[in-house]
Amino acid sequence: MILVIKCVEICSWRYCYEHIENTSNITNYKTKDFAELLGVSVKTLQRWDREGILEANRTPTDRRYYTYDQYLQFKGIKTQNDIRQVVIYARVSTKNQKDDLQNQVSFLRQFCNARGIIVDQCMEEYGSGLNYNRKKWNKLLDEVMEQKIKTIIITHKDRFIRFGYDWFEKFCMKFHTTIVIVNNEELSPQEELVQDSVSILHVFSSRLYGLRKYKKQIERDEEIVKELQDGNQSHTGAENQDS
Q1: Dihedral in degrees, nearest 10, Cα atoms 114, 116, 119, 120
Q2: What pLDDT, on a 0 to 100 scale, did the predictor assign at position 48?
Q3: In what order do the strands lie in the sheet with 149-154?
Q4: What is the dihedral of CA 163, 169, 170, 175, to 10 degrees?
Q5: What whole-number distance in Å separates Cα of residue 69 and Cα of residue 54?
Q6: Half-sphere exposure of residue 81: CA atoms within 13 angstroms, side-chain side
Q7: What is the mean pLDDT of residues 194-219?
Q8: Which long-range CB contacts under 8 A does 138-143 form with residues at least 24 apart?
Q9: Is position 93 annotated as part of the catalytic site?
C-alpha cells in the first residue's frame, strides 16, 4: 500500500515538473527555463546550487526545479504587503462563443476559490488571439507596466495570445507579474485555431499576390528603362555620325 502511494506521489511530481504546474501564485521552472529567466547559463545555476548561492528545489526523483518566489528573492523584490491585483483574463473570438467565455470564467473562479485566491478583476473579451489591438488586453498590459498587476490567471496560453506567448510572459515578469496557466484544453475552442490559421494563410496569400503584381510592375518598368536606354543610345549614335 505504501509502495503504491509512493508511486502515485512520484508520478504526480513528474507531471508537475514536465507541465510546469501552477499552484496558487507559485510557478515552477525547469533549470533551463529558470536560467533563461535570469539570463545565465545552466552550468552557472548548477554551480550556484552546489555553492549554496541559489539552491534548487528537488523532486522525489532528484530533478532540480525553481520557483517564481526564488526569482523574486534573487532579484531582491519583496513580496510582502503586495497590494497589486489578481486578474482573471478570459477570451473567445466571437460573440457566438459566449457560452465558452462564461465556461472559462466559471472554471477560473472555481480554481481561485479552491486555492483561496482573491480575484480583484475579471476581464472578459471578444477578439482574435492574433489581434494585438484588443482593448481589454492592451489595458491589462498597460496596468502590468504600471505595476498594478500581481497575477494574471488564464485557462490556456492561446487565451492570452495565439503566438508569441513566451515573449509576453517574460515581458510581464520584467514588471514582476506572474501568469498562471490552468491548462484546461477543453476551454480552448478548436474552431478558433482553424479560423486563426485561415487568417494567417489569407495574409500570406495576399502578400504573395501583391509581390506577383509588384514583380510584373518591375518587369514592365525594366522594359521601359531598356527602351529609353536604347533610344538614348540610338540618338547619341546619330549625333556622332552627324558630327
Answers
A1: 170
A2: 94
A3: 121-126, 85-92, 149-154, 178-181
A4: 140
A5: 12
A6: 0
A7: 58
A8: 140/87, 140/89, 143/85, 143/87
A9: yes
- DSSP code per residue over 108-154: HHHHHHHTTPPP-EEEEEES-TT-TT-HHHHHHHHHHHTT-EEEEEE
The answer to whether 137 and 149 are in contact (CB under 8 A) is: no
**Which of these, 26, 29, 80, lies nearest to 57 by C-alpha position?**
29
Quote the pLDDT of residue 87: 96
**Residue 208 pLDDT greater than 80, yes or no:** no
Q: For cell 497590494, what's the residue?
A: 83
Catalytic residue, chosen from 93, 128, 197, 243, is 93
How far from 238 is each of 124, 226, 228, 235, CA to CA, in Å? 77, 18, 15, 5
Full DSSP string of 52-102: TSSPPEE-TT--EEEEHHHHHHHTT---TT---EEEEEEEESSGGGHHHHH
Return d(Cα 37, Cα 33) in angstroms, integer.
Answer: 6
